[in-house]
Amino acid sequence: MTSDSSQSLSKITKSILNQHGITLNKNLGQNNLIDKNKRDQIINFGNLNKNDTVLEIGTGIGTLTLELARKAKKVIAIEQDENIYKILTERLKDEKIDNVELINDDALSVDFPKFNKIISNLPYQISSPITFKFLEYDFDLAILMYQKEFAERMNGEVGSKNYSRLSAMLYFKCNVETLTDVSSESFIPKPKIDSTVVKLTPKENKISDIDFEAYSNFTKALFQHRNKKIKNALIDSRHIIGSIDKKTLKQRLNSIESDEINEYISKRVVALTPEEILRLSKELNPIFNE
Q1: Is this prediction's pTM over 0.85?
Q2: Which of 13, 200, 272, 277 fits as disulfide partner to 142, beta carbons 3.0 to 4.6 Å?
Protein backbone atom coordinates (compact mmCIF):
# COMPACT_ATOMS: atom_id res chain seq x y z
CA MET A 1 0.00 0.00 0.00
CA THR A 2 1.39 3.41 -0.96
CA SER A 3 2.41 5.79 1.81
CA ASP A 4 1.11 9.35 2.19
CA SER A 5 4.40 10.87 1.05
CA SER A 6 4.10 9.78 -2.57
CA GLN A 7 0.43 10.46 -3.28
CA SER A 8 -2.14 13.08 -2.42
CA LEU A 9 -4.33 12.34 0.57
CA SER A 10 -7.36 12.45 -1.72
CA LYS A 11 -5.97 9.79 -4.06
CA ILE A 12 -4.89 7.55 -1.18
CA THR A 13 -8.30 7.77 0.46
CA LYS A 14 -10.24 7.05 -2.73
CA SER A 15 -7.90 4.18 -3.62
CA ILE A 16 -8.27 2.50 -0.22
CA LEU A 17 -12.07 2.85 -0.25
CA ASN A 18 -12.34 1.50 -3.81
CA GLN A 19 -9.95 -1.34 -3.10
CA HIS A 20 -12.16 -2.54 -0.25
CA GLY A 21 -15.48 -1.78 -1.93
CA ILE A 22 -16.46 0.72 0.76
CA THR A 23 -19.27 3.18 0.11
CA LEU A 24 -19.35 5.86 2.77
CA ASN A 25 -22.64 6.97 4.32
CA LYS A 26 -22.52 10.71 5.01
CA ASN A 27 -25.76 10.39 6.99
CA LEU A 28 -23.71 8.43 9.54
CA GLY A 29 -21.04 11.10 9.61
CA GLN A 30 -18.63 9.04 7.50
CA ASN A 31 -16.89 12.00 5.90
CA ASN A 32 -13.19 11.44 5.20
CA LEU A 33 -10.84 14.41 5.35
CA ILE A 34 -8.83 14.60 2.11
CA ASP A 35 -7.05 17.93 2.62
CA LYS A 36 -3.48 17.14 3.77
CA ASN A 37 -2.79 20.72 4.84
CA LYS A 38 -5.85 20.76 7.10
CA ARG A 39 -4.99 17.34 8.49
CA ASP A 40 -1.49 18.48 9.38
CA GLN A 41 -2.83 21.74 10.83
CA ILE A 42 -5.28 19.86 13.07
CA ILE A 43 -2.53 17.57 14.36
CA ASN A 44 -0.17 20.49 14.96
CA PHE A 45 -2.83 22.22 17.06
CA GLY A 46 -2.44 19.30 19.49
CA ASN A 47 1.21 20.17 20.19
CA LEU A 48 2.03 16.48 20.55
CA ASN A 49 5.11 14.89 22.06
CA LYS A 50 6.23 11.37 22.93
CA ASN A 51 4.64 11.59 26.40
CA ASP A 52 1.11 12.06 25.05
CA THR A 53 -1.63 9.46 24.86
CA VAL A 54 -4.22 10.62 22.35
CA LEU A 55 -7.87 9.58 22.19
CA GLU A 56 -9.40 9.57 18.71
CA ILE A 57 -13.12 8.95 18.13
CA GLY A 58 -14.29 7.87 14.68
CA THR A 59 -11.01 6.99 12.99
CA GLY A 60 -12.28 6.30 9.49
CA ILE A 61 -9.50 4.68 7.48
CA GLY A 62 -6.84 6.37 9.64
CA THR A 63 -6.30 9.78 8.05
CA LEU A 64 -5.49 11.26 11.46
CA THR A 65 -4.61 8.02 13.25
CA LEU A 66 -1.40 7.17 11.40
CA GLU A 67 0.07 10.65 11.77
CA LEU A 68 -1.00 10.90 15.42
CA ALA A 69 0.77 7.60 16.10
CA ARG A 70 3.99 8.92 14.61
CA LYS A 71 4.01 11.92 16.95
CA ALA A 72 2.52 10.59 20.21
CA LYS A 73 3.45 7.90 22.70
CA LYS A 74 0.17 6.08 22.11
CA VAL A 75 -3.15 6.49 20.30
CA ILE A 76 -6.43 5.04 21.57
CA ALA A 77 -8.56 4.87 18.42
CA ILE A 78 -12.25 3.97 18.54
CA GLU A 79 -14.10 3.01 15.36
CA GLN A 80 -17.57 1.46 15.38
CA ASP A 81 -17.81 0.35 11.73
CA GLU A 82 -16.36 -3.16 11.56
CA ASN A 83 -15.32 -2.93 7.89
CA ILE A 84 -13.52 0.38 8.42
CA TYR A 85 -11.92 -1.04 11.57
CA LYS A 86 -10.50 -3.95 9.54
CA ILE A 87 -9.09 -1.59 6.92
CA LEU A 88 -7.33 0.49 9.57
CA THR A 89 -6.00 -2.64 11.25
CA GLU A 90 -4.45 -3.62 7.92
CA ARG A 91 -3.02 -0.13 7.31
CA LEU A 92 -1.39 -0.04 10.75
CA LYS A 93 0.21 -3.42 10.06
CA ASP A 94 1.43 -2.34 6.61
CA GLU A 95 2.92 0.88 8.05
CA LYS A 96 4.50 -1.08 10.95
CA ILE A 97 2.77 1.14 13.50
CA ASP A 98 2.37 -0.65 16.85
CA ASN A 99 1.43 2.12 19.30
CA VAL A 100 -2.28 2.27 18.43
CA GLU A 101 -4.87 0.60 20.64
CA LEU A 102 -7.67 0.11 18.14
CA ILE A 103 -11.14 -0.47 19.62
CA ASN A 104 -14.05 -1.69 17.48
CA ASP A 105 -17.00 -0.40 19.52
CA ASP A 106 -19.46 2.43 20.10
CA ALA A 107 -17.59 5.36 21.67
CA LEU A 108 -20.72 6.37 23.57
CA SER A 109 -20.96 3.04 25.38
CA VAL A 110 -17.35 2.18 26.27
CA ASP A 111 -15.17 3.42 29.09
CA PHE A 112 -12.18 5.27 27.69
CA PRO A 113 -8.71 4.01 28.66
CA LYS A 114 -6.41 6.59 30.21
CA PHE A 115 -5.45 9.47 27.89
CA ASN A 116 -4.37 13.09 28.19
CA LYS A 117 -5.33 14.62 24.83
CA ILE A 118 -8.20 14.20 22.37
CA ILE A 119 -7.83 14.83 18.64
CA SER A 120 -10.75 13.79 16.46
CA ASN A 121 -12.74 14.48 13.35
CA LEU A 122 -15.92 13.52 15.19
CA PRO A 123 -18.84 11.67 13.62
CA TYR A 124 -21.26 14.57 13.43
CA GLN A 125 -24.34 12.66 14.52
CA ILE A 126 -22.83 12.05 18.00
CA SER A 127 -21.28 15.51 18.46
CA SER A 128 -23.43 16.47 21.43
CA PRO A 129 -23.41 13.25 23.50
CA ILE A 130 -19.72 12.55 22.90
CA THR A 131 -18.79 16.09 23.94
CA PHE A 132 -20.76 15.72 27.18
CA LYS A 133 -19.00 12.38 27.73
CA PHE A 134 -15.58 14.03 27.30
CA LEU A 135 -16.48 16.36 30.17
CA GLU A 136 -16.60 13.36 32.51
CA TYR A 137 -12.86 12.76 31.99
CA ASP A 138 -9.72 14.68 32.92
CA PHE A 139 -7.59 15.76 29.96
CA ASP A 140 -5.09 18.46 29.00
CA LEU A 141 -6.71 19.63 25.77
CA ALA A 142 -8.99 18.51 22.99
CA ILE A 143 -8.77 19.41 19.29
CA LEU A 144 -12.13 18.54 17.78
CA MET A 145 -13.78 19.04 14.41
CA TYR A 146 -17.52 19.71 14.38
CA GLN A 147 -20.09 20.95 11.93
CA LYS A 148 -19.76 24.72 11.87
CA GLU A 149 -23.25 25.36 13.27
CA PHE A 150 -22.57 23.06 16.22
CA ALA A 151 -19.25 24.78 16.95
CA GLU A 152 -21.00 28.15 16.98
CA ARG A 153 -23.37 26.88 19.69
CA MET A 154 -20.43 25.82 21.85
CA ASN A 155 -19.54 29.47 22.44
CA GLY A 156 -23.04 30.93 22.21
CA GLU A 157 -23.45 34.26 23.99
CA VAL A 158 -26.27 34.69 26.50
CA GLY A 159 -29.45 35.79 24.74
CA SER A 160 -28.23 34.87 21.25
CA LYS A 161 -29.64 32.20 18.95
CA ASN A 162 -26.51 30.12 19.61
CA TYR A 163 -26.89 30.19 23.41
CA SER A 164 -27.82 26.62 24.31
CA ARG A 165 -27.53 23.84 26.82
CA LEU A 166 -24.22 23.01 25.15
CA SER A 167 -22.67 26.44 25.70
CA ALA A 168 -24.04 26.62 29.26
CA MET A 169 -22.62 23.18 30.11
CA LEU A 170 -19.20 23.93 28.63
CA TYR A 171 -19.02 27.29 30.43
CA PHE A 172 -17.96 25.84 33.79
CA LYS A 173 -15.87 23.00 32.35
CA CYS A 174 -13.75 24.28 29.46
CA ASN A 175 -12.43 27.28 27.65
CA VAL A 176 -13.66 27.02 24.05
CA GLU A 177 -11.47 28.43 21.28
CA THR A 178 -12.34 28.41 17.57
CA LEU A 179 -9.18 27.53 15.63
CA THR A 180 -10.02 27.23 11.93
CA ASP A 181 -12.83 26.49 9.49
CA VAL A 182 -12.67 23.54 7.11
CA SER A 183 -14.51 23.74 3.79
CA SER A 184 -16.96 21.01 2.86
CA GLU A 185 -14.76 20.56 -0.26
CA SER A 186 -12.12 19.06 2.04
CA PHE A 187 -14.10 15.84 2.55
CA ILE A 188 -15.44 12.82 0.70
CA PRO A 189 -18.34 12.44 0.56
CA LYS A 190 -18.87 16.19 0.65
CA PRO A 191 -21.05 17.23 3.63
CA LYS A 192 -23.75 19.87 3.26
CA ILE A 193 -22.06 22.48 5.46
CA ASP A 194 -18.54 23.51 6.43
CA SER A 195 -16.77 22.34 9.56
CA THR A 196 -14.91 24.10 12.35
CA VAL A 197 -11.98 22.95 14.46
CA VAL A 198 -12.33 23.82 18.14
CA LYS A 199 -9.90 23.63 21.06
CA LEU A 200 -11.23 22.71 24.51
CA THR A 201 -9.03 23.40 27.52
CA PRO A 202 -10.40 22.30 30.90
CA LYS A 203 -10.83 25.08 33.47
CA GLU A 204 -8.87 24.77 36.69
CA ASN A 205 -11.46 26.31 39.00
CA LYS A 206 -14.36 23.99 38.36
CA ILE A 207 -17.50 23.85 40.45
CA SER A 208 -17.95 20.82 42.70
CA ASP A 209 -19.36 17.58 41.31
CA ILE A 210 -22.45 17.90 43.50
CA ASP A 211 -23.15 21.47 42.34
CA PHE A 212 -22.46 20.54 38.71
CA GLU A 213 -24.88 17.60 38.84
CA ALA A 214 -27.70 19.91 39.95
CA TYR A 215 -26.60 22.56 37.45
CA SER A 216 -26.58 19.96 34.68
CA ASN A 217 -30.12 18.83 35.49
CA PHE A 218 -31.44 22.39 35.63
CA THR A 219 -29.68 23.30 32.39
CA LYS A 220 -31.15 20.28 30.61
CA ALA A 221 -34.63 21.07 31.93
CA LEU A 222 -34.47 24.77 31.09
CA PHE A 223 -33.12 24.53 27.56
CA GLN A 224 -35.89 22.18 26.50
CA HIS A 225 -37.96 25.37 26.63
CA ARG A 226 -35.36 28.03 25.82
CA ASN A 227 -37.88 30.78 24.95
CA LYS A 228 -40.21 30.22 27.90
CA LYS A 229 -40.00 31.95 31.25
CA ILE A 230 -37.83 30.08 33.75
CA LYS A 231 -40.74 29.32 36.06
CA ASN A 232 -42.82 27.71 33.32
CA ALA A 233 -39.83 25.82 31.93
CA LEU A 234 -39.08 24.33 35.35
CA ILE A 235 -42.69 23.27 35.82
CA ASP A 236 -42.88 21.68 32.37
CA SER A 237 -39.56 19.79 32.76
CA ARG A 238 -39.76 19.10 36.50
CA HIS A 239 -39.28 15.33 35.94
CA ILE A 240 -35.65 15.95 34.88
CA ILE A 241 -34.79 17.51 38.24
CA GLY A 242 -36.91 15.57 40.72
CA SER A 243 -40.06 13.53 41.29
CA ILE A 244 -42.21 16.42 42.54
CA ASP A 245 -45.76 16.74 41.20
CA LYS A 246 -46.89 19.78 39.24
CA LYS A 247 -49.28 21.20 41.84
CA THR A 248 -46.76 21.02 44.68
CA LEU A 249 -44.01 22.58 42.58
CA LYS A 250 -46.25 25.48 41.58
CA GLN A 251 -47.09 26.11 45.23
CA ARG A 252 -43.43 26.07 46.24
CA LEU A 253 -42.33 28.36 43.41
CA ASN A 254 -45.15 30.80 44.25
CA SER A 255 -44.07 30.90 47.88
CA ILE A 256 -40.44 31.90 47.21
CA GLU A 257 -39.61 34.98 49.27
CA SER A 258 -36.25 35.95 47.72
CA ASP A 259 -36.69 38.93 45.38
CA GLU A 260 -33.54 37.91 43.48
CA ILE A 261 -34.77 34.36 42.82
CA ASN A 262 -38.21 35.64 41.86
CA GLU A 263 -36.55 37.98 39.38
CA TYR A 264 -34.57 35.08 37.91
CA ILE A 265 -37.59 32.82 37.41
CA SER A 266 -39.52 35.60 35.69
CA LYS A 267 -36.84 35.85 32.96
CA ARG A 268 -36.76 33.85 29.75
CA VAL A 269 -34.37 30.89 29.73
CA VAL A 270 -32.06 32.41 27.09
CA ALA A 271 -31.62 35.58 29.20
CA LEU A 272 -30.14 33.75 32.19
CA THR A 273 -26.34 33.56 32.45
CA PRO A 274 -24.62 30.31 33.46
CA GLU A 275 -23.77 31.90 36.84
CA GLU A 276 -27.45 32.72 37.37
CA ILE A 277 -28.50 29.18 36.39
CA LEU A 278 -25.94 27.84 38.89
CA ARG A 279 -27.31 30.09 41.64
CA LEU A 280 -30.85 29.05 40.76
CA SER A 281 -29.96 25.36 40.81
CA LYS A 282 -28.38 25.68 44.27
CA GLU A 283 -31.36 27.57 45.67
CA LEU A 284 -34.15 25.55 44.05
CA ASN A 285 -32.77 22.01 43.93
CA PRO A 286 -34.00 21.27 47.48
CA ILE A 287 -37.62 22.11 46.64
CA PHE A 288 -37.58 19.54 43.80
CA ASN A 289 -36.12 16.80 45.99
CA GLU A 290 -37.49 17.30 49.53
Answers
A1: yes
A2: 200
